[in-house]
Design brief:
Elements (H helix, E strand, L loop, with lengths): L3 H4 L3 H40 L10 H11 L4 H27 L1 H8 L7 E3 L26 H17 L4 H10 L8 E5 L5 H9 L4 E6 L2 H13 L5 E4 L12 E7 L7 H14 E11 L8 H13 L5 H6 L2 H8 L2 E7 L7 E6 L7
Parallel strand pairs: 1-4, 2-3, 2-5, 3-4, 5-6
Antiparallel strand pairs: 6-8, 7-8
Helix pairs in contact: 2-4, 2-6, 3-11, 6-9, 7-8
The chain binds S-adenosylmethionine.
Length: about 350
């Protein structure tokens, strides 16, 4: 049926209008779907907390999963939550990517870098094989679309995560940025900087510092460049793996990362710590913030994190949430290693450390 509003649209523009409406209505549908699943999740939690399946010693996550998954094997609520996740991944997300593809020009106006030359690219050879996985069920992976960085870290954050996430995702980044022990950093390197959400908090907290952002995603870096330029800032942006940046040894007095470590396999986590040590000057600080360890979560939350990670295409969440990051930092050669939980249920979970040597620069 043609509505009055549609018939007012000239024929040549109808496809555009329909596409814009389709994109918007899909986002709205997804938002409503997530809200609609919340009572089901609350019922699940209630059911589990009344039973025995959540008995857990804080270490054997596979055992907890087996007990709870077994308990919920016939649970219709969990069935619907799982089906919604799969449907989102296999139907809605590819459709959204197509729609964004068709709107590439409009998106470019908002997402393209102001100065593409400001991004240095170490090239495809430097990209590790694991990075090409379709994280989070995102069609095509981190760079599945020219503007995936903008779509994933801006549109999805603004319209889906902010309304449905229980914490303040931007405020958390600011709190972590403020946690670094000094106020006078001059050279900061943010590993896995993405579109620069956390990098911007660093730039605002330490306005005197020169900022370098490293990421493997071209589309994320493109939007990071735009974010900096629109704020009147100049960042050095580099496409390279965090575990092998190629940047000069001892070039920084603060090296950071925000939710990078759970996106990479354990061997790469170790290399990232080693690379951070190499990049720091003696006395320099490390601040890495990531997902909460399962052992510090409530049993329900630990089960939920792990179930969600598996069903939401987070292949290394479990290893990150069960890995001793403080131990890895010490093995890498850091000193003064400490960890701090900033929010509810221990998220953000921050590992802080110092490179031995000269006390303060
Ligand atoms: C969850 S995002 C976080 C982005 C940003 N730190 C923030 O606060 O929004 C993780 C980022 O890590 C990047 N990434 C994943 N593996 C990487 C690696 N080995 N080296 C550099 N960046 C990586 C991804 O491209 C993505 O931009």
């Amino acid at each position: 049926m043609t509505t009055a509003a549609q018939s007012a649209v000239p024929d040549g523009m109808r496809a555009d209008v329909e596409l814009a409406q389709r994109g918007r209505s899909e986002m709205q549908f997804l938002q409503a779907m997530r809200a609609g699943l919340r009572p089901l999740q609350a019922r699940l939690r209630d059911r589990l907390e009344k039973g025995d399946a959540l008995a857990w010693d804080g270490t054997d996550i596979a055992g907890l999963r087996a007990a709870v998954d077994g308990e919920l094997a016939e649970d219709a609520d969990l069935g619907i939550i799982g089906a919604a996740l799969r449907w989102n991944r296999s139907v809605l997300t590819p459709r959204a990517v197509d729609a964004f593809g068709e709107r590439a020009e409009d998106l470019s106006a908002k997402a393209a870098p102001v100065d593409a030359e400001a991004i240095t690219d170490r090239g495809e050879e430097a990209v590790p094989r694991y990075w090409r996985y379709e994280f989070h069920g995102t069609t095509g992976g981190w760079d599945g679309h020219e503007h995936m960085g903008f779509v994933h870290h801006e549109l999805v954050y603004r319209y889906l995560l902010v309304p449905s996430f229980p914490g303040d995702i931007f405020g958390q980044r600011a709190s972590v940025a403020r946690l670094a022990p000094r106020e006078d950093y001059t050279d900061i390197c943010d590993l896995g900087c993405g579109t620069g959400q956390f990098t911007m908090k660093l730039a605002q907290t330490y306005p005197g510092a020169r900022i370098t952002g490293v990421d493997l995603s071209v589309s994320e870096l493109r939007y990071a460049q735009r974010r900096a330029a629109e704020a009147g800032l100049e960042w050095d942006l580099l496409r390279a793996p965090a575990e092998d940046t190629g940047l000069a040894e001892g070039a920084f007095d603060l090296v950071t990362s925000f939710i990078l470590l759970h996106e990479i396999p354990p061997h790469a986590i170790r290399k990232v710590f080693a690379e951070a040590l190499r990049l720091l000057r003696p006395g320099g600080d490390l601040v890495f913030s990531d997902v909460a360890p399962y052992r510090l979560r409530s049993p329900y939350q630990a089960w939920h994190d792990d179930w969600d990670a598996e069903n939401g295409h987070e292949p290394w969440w479990r290893t990150a949430a069960t890995t001793d990051l403080a131990g890895i930092a010490r093995e890498a050669g850091f000193t003064d290693v400490r960890q701090e939980a900033l929010g509810k249920e221990s998220y953000p979970w921050v590992t802080l450390a110092r490179k031995p040597g000269q006390e303060r620069l």
